[in-house]
Amino acid sequence: MKLLQKTLFIIFFYVNLTYSYKICALKKHENICGQLERNNRIKCEYVDNEASCLIKIDSGEIDFGSINAETAFLGNGLISNVVPFAQIIPETARNVEFDYETVVVSEEKFESLEGLSYCHPGFENTLIPPLILKEFEQHVFKKYSNHCDTEFETSVEWEIFALNKIFGDSCRDGVWTPDKKLDEHLHDKHPGLIKLCPNLNGDPLERSLQCMLNTKHSIALTTSNTINNKINTTNKALWYYCKNGTVSNTPCSWSKQPYPILIMSNHQSQPGNLENTLKKWLSREVFNKDGSEDSESDLDEKDLRYLKEILNNNKELNNVVVNYKLFNDNTSNAWGNFIKSFRDIPSPDDSIICKRKMRWCTTSDNEQTKCKWLSQASINYGIQPVVECVQKSSELECLKAISNNNESADLITTSADLGYAAKKYGLSAIAFPETYNNQEINTLLLVKNDRNIERLENLKGKKGCFPLYSGIAWLSFVEATRGIVLSNESCDYGKLLSDFLGDSCMPGAIETNRAIHNTVDSEKMCKLCTETGKTCEASEATNLYFNTSGALRCLEEKGDFAVIVKDPSLVFPNNVQVMCKNGTFSTLDAFNVDEGCYLSTLTTSEVITRINDPLNKDIQLALLQYDEWFAAKTHTPFRLFDSFNNTKDLLFKDSTPGLAVPTSQKPPIKNYVELFKHIGDCSKGSGVADNPSKGIRSITFVTTTLLIFTTIIMNLF
User: Fold this and answer.
1) What number of CA atoms fall less than 13 Å from residue 575's CA on the CB side?
2) CA dihedral 411, 413, 415, 420 (to 10 degrees)
3) Residue 289 pLDDT grade (very low, low, confident, very high; cuts 50, 70, 90)
4) CA angle centred on 86, ends 61 and 296, rounded to 5°
5) CA distance readout (Å), 513 to 399, 422, 537
6) In angstroms, how far is the first alpha carbon of the chain from the final one?
């Protein structure tokens, strides 16, 4: 029996000693990880960013790692199996409990805030998130919420209105909204809110404090560190306005910012005691001043330095001696208690202002998850309206949901292939994802050499191969030939093509949710697709000729010509030439033709909403703020245009550098807008229905009206 116990103890000890705990690491840590993994105690798991680290620790895929405070707050309400283990505090700040804590302060004690001068640091040149910089304002705004719905087109207009109503001459400096025209209008309309800003010096928090000290009957938002550094508080009485509504002569904070945090998974599946192991590795005694290793640690001094370098990924902590201040909360709600000890993080429902929210349509579980993280990120950065995530089965189902009268969704980012369907559903672009150079869409017309096709007119009656009915290649062909071989008057592009071409393959031509009208000869447009026993569906699983690769196969096997989206990864077919949009032929037997030879050069996607919806201006302002905070600024924890949890192209393509408004003059966006201009003009002038269901209702209404009118006339006689 004793022998068995001893054997089990040895096995347990060996497993505990040799188990590799998984740590979050970035690709830049690859060389360090290679050295650290040699001891078989720690294994690096690579993540895209800190948010992915938090998600994987929550799921138990990774055991521990470090994140900054904003990433921790981002996970509020979205994770449940993470335990905060320690703060990573620089040696220079070892006696400072927080990175910063915000306070509202004055030299005077007031019964009411109305009419006071308000000194605010602004939102530029500071790492403090806008939500924290607006926290005090939001508390005093509530009495003006009844002005929301009727008086203002956007949330920011109500916000500035409320500030101007409450406070007297103030300094709330800087940009108030990313829309330059609206920002200028608001500054011109409310000059009192920036009247005290001139002649202030220092960083934003110092300027705010200086504004208060220079102005009677004033109140300032700043930090306790700024006050301690600039004022001898032992000789000067200050009054602090607290979150609970009281006024105190001792500091009371609104929000506190912790230093970077070491976190670990709460899953118990891994062998060994991770908490005790981390304590042994990272307690201050491990880093002896003489550089020698601690006898109780199973990592040597070099490995400990490698571990420290991965954990101290934050730029301000690199090459700095740090302390690991342990948290002592072993309760099941340790994460929630940790968050609440620093800051109030409102939920989406509690953050709605003026009853406005924007419902973002998603098409997968992964996209829905990223959308929920975007919703929390936008709340944490004070961006309105609040995002609500609505999941549907496909982009087409999202378009239908947005167009329906019950308005179950408000927006979605769709591929350019759905632009025609979106317009027919009465929807339009509110913003465009930009594209990097050489990543835009280029469409080409390929013709077989032996089909006697010398100009565009020769395509009449020919067999055409298209990647997708109503897709961007299909529409580019219509635009290039409209007024030359196709009528310039009709809006019914499907009928124009089915009348002009011979048997063809246009995957999706039989699908009614692509806004197909009865005038289209769908059997003819699907003939080449279905001859092989396959369907005409827009699906690779059931249609060999779907997408660009399928259209090339169709051309090789059956077609006379094909219209495709350029894809350099595909092999250029034999016995084929590129016909340029001016009717000439490229001299190159390859996809890399001159720019002037493309049928079109376009952006890859668009953000779709309802036309003339009252919420649209607010949505557009929110999108511009996402671009600023979650793309342009590199220190924020959520990256809108990056992979999420190691999954690409969710909500937006990873290749998106930023967003642009529809009036952008960038060629791919301008070309895309021009491509759809005829549809808009034609629909207004011809009565062709934007939404197929609306068209049916219109016909029914007209028919009913005529019948009633006829009956009345007959009764009169």
Assistant:
1) 11
2) 20
3) very low
4) 90
5) 9, 10, 12
6) 114
Distance of CA 606 to the CA centre of its chain: 13
- Per-residue b/e over 233-272, b at no fewer than 16 CB within 10 Å? eeeeebbbbeeeeeeeeeebbbbbbbbbbbbbbbeeeeeb
Per DSSP, which regions of 418-560 are E strands?
A: 427-433, 441-448, 464-465
- Phi and psi, residue 283, nearest 5°: -65, 155
Vertex 349 angle, CA 345 and 353, to 5°: 90
> Is residue 576 helix, strand or coil?
strand
Task: Say whether 454 sits in a helix, a strand or coil.
Answer: coil
SS (H, E, C) 79-104: CCCEEEEEEEEEHHHCCCCCCEEEEE
DSSP-assigned letters across all residues of 104-130: EEESS--S--TT-EEEE--SSS--S-H
User: Which of 38, 680, 84, 43 is closest to 338 using CA atoms?
Assistant: 84
Q: Ranked by mean pLDDT, which of 331-345, 354-368, 398-412 comes out on top?
A: 354-368
Could you tell me how many residues make up the chain?
A: 717
Which of the pair, 707 or 159, is modelled with greater confidence? 159
Distance CA 658, CA 626 (A): 9
51 vs 531, higher pLDDT: 51
**Of 639, 562, 564, nearest to 71 (Cα)?**
639
273-292 burial string, b = 16+ CB within 10 Å, else e? ebeebbebbbbeebbeeeee
- DSSP string for 613-651: -TTHHHHHHHHHHHHIIIII-SSSS--TTS-BTTB--SS
